[in-house]
Write a structure and sequence with these properties.
This protein is an alpha+beta fold. The chain is about 25% helix and about 30% strand. It has 3 domains: about 200 residues, Thrombin, subunit H (Beta Barrel), CATH 2.40.10.120; about 100 residues, PDZ domain (Pdz3 Domain); about 100 residues, Roll (Pdz3 Domain), CATH 2.30.42.10.
Length: about 500
């Protein structure tokens, strides 16, 4: 091969080698990019009917919850006499049922969703807290109302379990994993906002881990999906129709800022509520100074900081006493977390697991000290578990009036805070939700003096003197005042 051919061959080989090296290097770069970049089809739209399908799947599991707090003598304020007003005018108002303490049931609306076919429903605690009667409507087209019982509730996490017996298997929502959610993920909120019936709204996850200690022990999921009053307790779902949050709160004076309890945290609470009815809170056994420490007091106690919680008393035999804590100890850290004030310290104690030990750091006489404290169960939680709601059985009024009455007794008087009576007049022990008695403002604890102007001294007298298909006058003693009520008796 002559020199000219050898030069051409070498040049050609160099070109081929360069091409091969370039191709290999480029391929490796592309391969690395493909492995590190998320796999997505850019520009591909979501299915047009995505939220239509979500609504079809979730709405049958969403329920409307109406709770009612019946008037109770211990909840009503006694009307003070009006100075300078004719006493006869007071008596006139009382006799004709115009006293200001007379009022009907307090009602509220909220949302829940079925999580098991046997009628177990998850909702917010504030939807059912303090309710005497809880009614559940499965759909706005079905006007049947089911009476629900409270399985358990927890104020701190704002979650509650209630249950209905629908005599059939019910559709239920599937619980997903909130830990899988990312900012920007599509979500849909379901509920009964403003009492308008089943409503669906869509949005995205706006933020994760939004800590608002005053509202909840768990950091919230934040979303711009509309959550209005009445949506509380409804489900927040992902695009797989899985519940990833429980709608709980909205930011005041704002739009597009709603908060949901992450379902992963809710699952833990559900298990505890179904087992014990409550979530047992930690108990330290101290009373704390509720206000900020001023600089003068801090200097006097040898404190180098103002943020913390000042202990003012320690209970005998409490975890705090066993750990060596004393009055005037200034707590600065609990379980490694800074303590800013007494309210923050209270929340940290309540959220601490019962039976576990926690490090506590405090200042005493100008020196920082440390101790280990073992949490005990809060005595109030123990009482709630052990206590059973008293049910006083009485004779049921006829003609669909919707109340029950029983004879006066010392036990009844103590329970309802009744005065000692000259005669043992009968006492109202039950008023049904949305009944004629409730509409007529009859209340649990009312002492019945006469029915249709005939004096009654026992429960049988009450039933005997009620008349069918007419307006019955019922005069009751309430908070020391006689009040005249009118109840419509219409038998079904």
């Amino acid at each position: 091969m002559n020199s000219k051919k050898r030069i051409l061959f070498a040049a050609f080989a160099l070109i081929i080698a360069t091409a091969v090296i370039t191709f290999t290097f480029t391929s490796r770069i592309k391969s690395a990019d493909a492995e590190s970049a998320p796999k997505m089809n850019l520009g591909s739209p979501l299915p047009e009917n995505l939220f239509v399908e979500l609504a079809k799947l979730i709405n049958p599991t969403v329920v409307n919850i109406s709770s009612s707090r019946l008037p109770h003598p211990q909840q009503r304020q006694r009307r003070a006499p009006n100075p300078g007003q004719d006493p006869f005018f007071d008596m006139f108002q009382d006799f004709f049922g115009q006293a200001p303490q007379q009022r009907g049931p307090e009602q509220s609306l909220g949302t829940g969703f079925i999580i098991r076919a046997d009628g177990l429903i998850l909702t917010n605690n504030h939807v059912v807290e303090g309710a005497d009667v809880i009614k559940v409507q499965l759909s706005e087209k079905d006007h049947s109302l089911f009476t629900a019982e409270v399985v358990g509730r927890d104020q701190r996490s704002d979650l509650a379990l209630i249950k209905i017996d629908a005599k059939r298997a019910l559709p239920f929502a599937r619980l997903g994993n909130s830990r899988d959610m990312q900012v920007g993920d599509w979500v849909a909120a379901f509920g009964n906002p403003l009492g308008l019936g089943h409503t669906t709204s869509k949005g995205i996850i706006s933020a994760i881990g939004r800590e608002i200690d005053d509202l909840n022990r768990f950091p919230f999921l934040q979303t711009d999906a509309s959550i209005n009053p009445g949506n509380s307790g409804g489900p927040l779902v992902n695009t797989k129709a899985e519940v990833i949050g429980v709608n709980s709160a909205i930011a005041a004076n704002s739009q597009g800022i709603g908060f949901a309890i992450p379902i992963d945290e809710a699952k833990t609470i559900i298990a505890l509520l179904e087992k014990d009815g409550v979530v047992r809170r930690g108990y330290l056994g101290v009373n704390m100074y509720p206000y900020p420490i001023n600089p003068q007091a801090a200097q006097e106690m040898g404190l180098t900081r103002l943020n913390g919680a000042l202990i003012v008393s320690v209970m005998d035999g409490s975890p705090a006493q066993k750990a060596g804590l004393r009055e005037y100890d200034f707590v600065t850290k609990f379980n490694g977390k800074e303590v800013d004030n007494s309210e923050a310290f209270r929340r940290l104690i309540a959220d601490a697991d019962v039976g576990k030990s926690f490090a506590i750091e405090f200042i005493r006489e100008g020196k920082t000290r440390k101790a280990q404290v073992t949490m005990q169960e809060n005595p109030e939680d123990r009482k709630q578990v052990q206590a059973k709601k008293k049910v006083y059985r009485g004779q049921k009024a006829p003609f669909n009036l919707g109340f029950s009455v029983t004879n006066y007794s010392a036990e009844i008087a103590h329970e309802f805070g009744l005065p000692q009576l000259k005669k043992n007049y009968p006492v109202v022990v039950e008023v049904e939700f949305d009944s004629q008695a409730a509409k007529g403002h009859l209340a649990v604890g009312d002492v019945i003096l006469d029915v249709n102007r005939v004096e009654v001294t026992n429960d049988t007298d009450v039933l005997r003197n009620l008349k069918k298909d007419q307006i019955n006058s019922v005069r009751v003693l309430r908070n020391g005042y006689a009040v005249l009520l009118y109840l419509s008796a219409q038998e079904k």
